[in-house]
UniProtKB/TrEMBL annotation:
Pfam family, one: ThiF
Superkingdom of origin: Bacteria
Protein name, UniProt field: Uncharacterized protein
Organism listed in the record: Microbacterium sediminis
Molecular function, one GO term: tRNA threonylcarbamoyladenosine dehydratase
Length: 385
């Protein structure tokens, strides 16, 4: 459902801004009032890269009054395949300054504060304070955790998107949403320690056009929250598949503390879930113990064929690439024939997406915390020097 507008409108738009945003004001249910709310809004964006680039362009073009762009990197030639904010002439320029230039060229009345700092747990709250909402397009999970913690503390809504290879996720986290809505936090999607070591796009690649799509969706969510026009994704996780050109959603709600603790084997996924129930993240040692039992779970490797060929799974497993699993999770459940399912990928990110889809389809599924990398690291630590 739509939420109350997040931002009070400015008193009036300039004649130039009214002309520039005329097509917004012509939208039924949007009009000049929503446009004046955009003019009064302050949005902080963490990262001016693959996701931040289209989001910054979209929000400046939409007429957001103030953007704070936080990024400590400089533009590199390899960025330009997806970071469409920047140009060849910007190579070597700080991304935050390039963002300020591009936004000013689109919307002269938008104020852009370029912050050339690396956001971390120690400065996140200070850098994000005062923003009406935050968009996170950062490139490390540690940064994302710091952003989410600061937003929870500040009570600010967090529009969250992530892209890896051909797949993406978009949602909204908010620790203090309007009355009648339940809080949802990053920890409800990725409990502490479950994400593992996330590979970079330099290691596994990323589809540039998908970054544009996700950045635009994030900007749309910001506009919906600012104006009260449209339904934010709080409580819903959108999954995008750039290979099959599909977009679907699964419910996302706050995880119950210690769900099932002490009542089941640590590697057992449990009974078919209620709508929106989160998959468990199984530690490597617990999974090894479960695989030695008579009712061992079915392992489902969701990596690509090339990855699996060069880096075999650590135990016998069913190979179902993530895009194929998301297209038909029921087929995987049928193949399991009543066994619990544990999904695998390199670092735990794609496997958690797969487990979410299987849980939403009613299948008992968990994910290997930290992925195959964590499995191997733990085994190496067990071997005497």
């Amino acid at each position: 459902m739509p939420f109350p507008p997040l931002v009070e409108p400015v008193a009036a738009l300039s004649d130039a801004e009214r002309a520039r945003t005329a097509r917004h004001r012509a939208l039924g249910g949007f009009g000049e009032l929503a446009q004046r709310r955009l003019a009064g809004a302050h949005v902080a964006l963490v990262g001016a890269g693959g996701l931040g680039s289209p989001a910054i362009l979209a929000l400046a073009a939409a007429g957001v009054g103030r953007l704070t762009v936080i990024d400590d990197d400089a533009v590199e030639l390899s960025n330009l395949q997806r970071q469409v904010l920047h140009r060849v002439a910007d190579v070597g320029t700080p991304k935050a300054l390039s963002a300020a230039r591009a936004a000013a060229e689109l919307s002269p009345q938008t104020r852009v504060d370029a912050v050339r700092e690396r956001l971390h747990a120690g400065n996140a709250r200070e850098l994000l304070a005062g923003a009406d909402l935050v968009l996170d397009g950062s490139d490390t999970f540690d940064t994302r955790v710091a952003v989410a913690a600061a937003c929870e503390d500040l009570g600010a809504p967090l529009v969250w998107g992530v892209v890896q290879e051909f797949h993406a996720q978009v949602t909204v986290f908010w620790s203090r949403p309007p009355a009648g809505a339940s809080p949802v936090r990053l920890g409800d999607l990725y409990p502490s320690g479950s994400a593992g070591e996330v590979p970079t796009c330099a290691e596994v690649g990323v589809l540039g056009a998908l970054c544009l799509q996700v950045g635009a969706l994030m900007a749309q969510q910001a506009i919906a929250l600012i104006t009260g026009v449209g339904e934010p994704l709080l409580g819903r996780l959108v999954l995008l598949d750039g290979l099959r050109m599909t977009q679907r959603e699964v419910p996302l709600r706050a995880s119950a503390a210690d769900r099932g603790a002490g009542t089941e084997h640590p590697a057992v996924a449990g009974p078919p879930p209620a709508a929106g129930e989160e998959p468990r993240a199984i530690r490597p040692g617990d999974l090894r113990a479960a695989l030695a039992t008579a009712d061992a779970p079915l392992l489902v490797d969701v990596r690509g064929a090339d990855e699996r060929a060069t880096d075999p799974a650590p135990a016998p497993s069913l190979h179902v690439p993530l895009d194929a699993l998301l297209a038909d999770p029921g087929a995987v459940a049928t193949a399991a024939a009543g066994r619990d399912i544990v999904t695998l990928c390199r670092s735990g990110v794609r496997s958690r997406t797969a487990a979410l889809a299987l849980r939403a389809a009613g299948a008992p599924a968990a994910t290997l915390a930290g992925g195959i990398d964590a499995w191997r690291s733990e085994r190496a630590a067990e071997v005497p020097a």
